[in-house]
Amino acid sequence: MVKLKSSPKKAKTSAVRKSRKAVINEVETVKSRAKVVHNQYISVNTMKLKEVQDYLLYVSSLKRILWINFLVGTARGLGFIVGTVIVLAVLTFFISQVLSEIPWIGESFRWLDDWLRENIDTYSTNGH
Question: Which of 10, 38, 53, 120 is the most exposed place for a label (fewest CB within 10 A)?
Answer without folding.
Answer: 38
